[in-house]
Write a structure and sequence with these properties.
By secondary structure, the protein is an all-alpha fold. The chain has one helix at residues 3-42. The protein is rod-shaped, with a radius of gyration of 20 Å.
Length: 47
């Protein structure tokens, strides 16, 4: 495999990993919002 092909493959994988990371960060953010709402509803009794 030529070095250029190897670099291109690594760049593609890096892009996919960055996309996956962004999706996971969005999921974590949404989970935190949901957890905060649940805590407010059930623990602090702000119904």
């Amino acid at each position: 495999m030529r070095i250029e092909d190897h670099i291109a493959a690594l760049e593609d994988e890096n892009r996919r990993l960055r996309d996956d990371n962004e999706k996971l960060l969005n999921i974590i953010t949404q989970m935190k919002v949901t957890l905060d709402r649940l805590v407010n509803y059930y623990i602090t009794d702000r119904r």
